[in-house]
Amino acid sequence: MTLFLVRHGRPLVDRDRPAAEWELDPAGFDDVWALRESERLPRRATWFCSPEPKAIGTAQLLTEGEVGVVDDLREHERLSTDWISDFEAVVRRGFAHPDLSAHPGWEPLSSCRDRVVPAVRRILDVHSGEDVVLVGHGTAWTVTVADLTGSAPDLDRWAALSMPDLLVVPI
């Protein structure tokens, strides 16, 4: 069994709306299709995604099969958009102090972890023995990989993630 964690494709950034509402940028569709054609994803798997439009759009471009939408796979909440110019520093601050809001309007990273990791574990328990593909978000996947592997969050790997990108976790 292998867990495939897909980070969504490039979003259409709209500073007037929270990141959770952003759509997938059509200019980035080719990047998502390139991941689909790369044969890095399994041919047979059970698919789920975050309810955020950019994750749903990515999943729809990656597979013609059914994709379950799981609310608890959403990214940590970021209600403002004034962090965009300093995104990496704010996220790193969130990892350094996960029980605190790294920026006004941001959910503490520990709250995201406490929602996402149990959801992933439930999916893995129900689909034991199957390959599973989850389409979601870089920060959520970083805390998930750390929890599943018993390691510290790899912030350099997080910073290097593309949109889309893939993390593979043998289970």
Q: Overview of this structure, please?
A:
By secondary structure, the protein is an alpha/beta fold. It has one domain (2-170): 3-Layer(aba) Sandwich (Rossmann fold), CATH 3.40.50.1240. The protein contains six helices and five strands. The protein has a five-stranded mixed sheet. Helix 2 (53-62) links the parallel strand 2 and strand 3 (67-69). Helix 4 (109-126) packs across helix 5 (138-149). 33% of the residues are buried. This is Broad specificity phosphatase PhoE. InterPro entries: His_Pase_superF_clade-1 (IPR013078), His_PPase_superfam (IPR029033).
Quick structural overview:
By secondary structure, the protein is an alpha/beta fold.
Largest sheet, order of strands side by side?
3-2-4-1-5
Overall strand count: 5
Low-confidence stretches: none
CATH-assigned fold name = Rossmann fold
Q: What's the number of domains?
A: 1
Keywords:
alpha/beta, 5-stranded mixed sheet, 5 strands, His_PPase_superfam, Broad specificity phosphatase PhoE, His_Pase_superF_clade-1
Topology:
Layout: E1 2-7, H1 29-37, E2 46-49, H2 53-62, E3 67-69, H3 87-96, H4 109-126, E4 132-136, H5 138-149, H6 155-160, E5 165-170
Parallel strand pairs: 1-4, 2-3, 2-4
Antiparallel strand pairs: 1-5
Helix pairs in contact: 4-5
Protein name: Broad specificity phosphatase PhoE
Pfam families: His_Phos_1 (PF00300)
InterPro entries: His_Pase_superF_clade-1, His_PPase_superfam
